[in-house]
Amino acid sequence: EVYKLLVGMPRSRRSALYGQGAGGRRMMEDKYVFLDRDGVINEDGDGWTEHGYITRWEDFRFLPGVPEALKKFADSGYRCVIISNQQGVGKGCFTRRELSAITKRMVDIVKRAGGDIAGVYYCTHTREEQCGCRKPETGLFRQAQEELGISDLRGKYYIGDMERDIQAGKNAGLGTILVLSGKTSSRDVEKWACRPDHICGDLSAAAEIVRGAGS
User: Would you name the residues annotated as active-site residues?
Assistant: First the structure.
């Protein structure tokens, strides 16, 4: 199954960032950046939580500087789209309702910090189900593109912390940024067949790459 949460931008903020005419609407449509969740936004649960997943809000820990990094994106007019595998739901480690509760609290904190999350898309299938939405497949990217009205993914970025994130981004036609705030070290990347376009330490540094590219 796919879990999604679409989040609207307040009209006043839309107008301030993009203007109210057709040109403003086109600019708004074009300003998106895609993000993984665990290991990019929050600490990955592998190795220290009961099931290796973030199954409750008490275990959700924003990585250092993340709310500020998400505000950087918003201040430059970017809306964030989160694309994440959450097979712990499919395995029965936690429920869709629990995932929803975690997500809504995350989005609320980001919003209060000045960030802008346009949508959150989760694949809750297990690896064994071989679905079309679990990364490195591109189903969630295509769904987000259609539902959010994004005309073209080319020139935009996906930011992740694992090889499958980089594979997924490239499969979707996105530029890719690997952050080393999750499971991967720079030495690991040397063994990968699929290399990221950029490597940096954390989301704050990735935000500077995206803003510098001006996509």
Answer: 36, 38
